[in-house]
Design a protein that fits this description.
The protein is 80% helix and 0% strand. The chain has six helices and no strands. Helix 4 packs antiparallel against helix 6.
Length: 169
């Protein structure tokens, strides 16, 4: 059962890392897009990244927490705790940097009821695409948030796999 939890945790955290890293690796190409093209490309992420990211990130946090509670030895415990901290900080970056931009950008997009609740666009004050200066600031914030999240996810995965490797040694 314990080995199953280790494997499941690595799969979930690696999946969360893959999505964050995918966003970060798109940065050089997306930063060259004009405002209209950027918004067309940006909307392709929903709902795939939302569903996949939600499952992988929440599942990864829960599984990492469970693994931490079952860890033997102080070094292993602190490695898993470090991985958990990285995953939790990833969430903070999402909710405080990424999500406000998502909410703003999706105001005019027709969403399903669950998506409206998640992105909190119901009752928002609509409006057209933001002015160029605001758009650039929002784009940079969204893109930077994903680079930060990718770094945190990679760190979390490294710490997690180190903890598992130490246990096996």
């Amino acid at each position: 059962m314990y080995v199953f939890l280790e494997v499941l945790t690595v799969i979930l955290v690696a999946s969360a890392m893959a999505m964050a890293l995918a966003h970060a690796l798109e940065l050089p190409g997306k930063i060259r897009l004009g405002r209209q093209e950027y918004f067309v490309v940006q909307r392709i992420y929903y709902p795939g990244f939302t569903i996949g990211g939600g499952v992988a990130e929440v599942g990864g946090i829960v599984a990492t927490f469970a693994l931490m509670l079952m860890s033997g030895g102080p070094v292993r415990f602190w490695l898993v705790a470090g991985a958990l901290a990285a995953l939790l900080i990833m969430q903070l970056v999402f909710w405080f940097m990424t999500q406000p931009v998502n909410k703003h950008w999706l105001q005019e997009v027709e969403l399903t009821a669950p998506a409206k609740r998640f992105f909190a666009t119901e009752g928002s004050d609509g409006g057209s695409l933001p002015p160029t200066e605001e758009w650039t600031t929002l784009r940079n914030q969204w893109e930077l948030s994903h680079v930060i999240r990718a770094v945190l996810a990679i760190l979390g995965l490294i710490l997690l796999t180190l903890a598992i490797a130490i246990h096996g040694a």
